[in-house]
């Protein structure tokens, strides 16, 4: 049977790539094997015993590092993280008279995904009249959109 992965191969003929798997160590098979007697575990101690293990961050009875580091401040789990879009980006991404919604911003590639919290900021110039719907507007963005003949709608 050939080692090719062509259209004629079937699941029974699959094998791992050459060199991707190594044979496990044979432990406790005499001193000549290199892994005899204590089987590479050394003498006595926690890790010479069966079932020894510890979780990440365990420091052998010392106070763990995460408990020694001072904690500061508070992060609210309810904070709405706003996705920011500049007025200049709207100028480049949309045609005159277009409806700009969070879904339209996602399809234009200006934000990653549609979630509550889109804010329009006033950086850049806007010459096109756009109907913009977002959750928040900066004062300069609102002024530029209305000056260009567009409208701002605040979403709940």
Please give a quick description of this structure:
The chain has 156 residues and is of the alpha/beta class.
Record the SSE blueprint.
Elements: H1 65-68, E1 83-86, H2 87-93, E2 99-100, H3 102-107, E3 118-121, E4 131-134, E5 136-137, H4 139-147, E6 151-154
Key terms for this structure?
alpha/beta; 156 residues; 6 strands; Ribosomal Protein L15, Chain: K, domain 2; 3-stranded parallel beta sheet
Task: Describe the protein in words.
The model has no long low-confidence stretch (mean pLDDT 88). The strands form two sheets. A three-stranded parallel sheet has the order 1-3-5. The protein has a three-stranded parallel sheet with strand order 2-4-6. It has a domain at 83-154: Ribosomal Protein L15, Chain: K, domain 2. It has helices spanning 65-68, 87-93, 102-107, 139-147; strands at residues 83-86, 99-100, 118-121, 131-134, 136-137, 151-154. It is an alpha/beta fold and 156 residues long. The protein is built from four helices and six strands, in the order αβαβαβββαβ.
Q: Which structural category fits the helices and strands?
A: alpha/beta
Silhouette: elongated
**What is the alpha-carbon Rg in Å?**
32 Å
Low-confidence parts: none
CATH architectural type of the domain at 83-154? Ribosomal Protein L15, Chain: K, domain 2
Ends apart, CA distance between termini = 66 Å
**Helical percent range?**
10-25%
Q: Which strand-content bin applies to the residues? A: 5-15%
């Amino acid at each position: 049977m050939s080692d090719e992965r062509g259209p004629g191969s079937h699941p029974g003929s699959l094998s791992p790539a050459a060199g991707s798997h190594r044979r496990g160590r044979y432990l406790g098979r005499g001193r000549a094997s290199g892994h005899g007697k204590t089987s590479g575990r050394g003498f006595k101690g926690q890790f010479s015993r069966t079932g020894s293990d510890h979780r990440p961050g365990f420091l052998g009875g010392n106070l763990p590092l995460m408990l020694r580091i001072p904690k500061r401040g508070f992060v609210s789990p309810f904070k709405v993280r706003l996705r920011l879009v500049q007025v200049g980006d709207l100028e480049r991404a949309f045609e005159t008279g277009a409806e700009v919604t969070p879904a339209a911003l996602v399809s234009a590639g200006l934000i990653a995904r549609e979630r509550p919290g889109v804010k329009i900021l006033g950086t850049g110039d806007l010459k096109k009249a756009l109907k913009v719907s977002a959750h928040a507007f900066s004062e300069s963005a609102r002024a530029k959109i209305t000056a260009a003949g567009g409208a701002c709608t605040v979403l709940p």
